Amino acid sequence: MFARLPDDAATDVAITIDGEPFAARAGDTVAAALLAAGRRVFRAAPATGAPRGPYCLMGVCFECMVTVDGRPDQQACMLAVAPGMRIETGRGVRAVGADAGTPP
Q: Model's pTM, two decimal places?
């Protein structure tokens, strides 16, 4: 569905997606890098666990939330990749209060 257009002038940026190395393009958003890496599911819906992926790609819908460098709930479509960036997609429903260190 998504395919990169050739760009001989593109510069690679080394990032990590779910623990695996990936070469994104400089100027890519995190969402673009995930799509280029073949990732379609970015997180699970909090209530049902249904797979969610990017929808609007302009910061309105919040469907593309991922964890970036240990910071949860970052909008992938609004962040540019940076060298060494660690991106983690959602792998299930998190417990309420899990990030704050409080019991669910």
A: 0.83
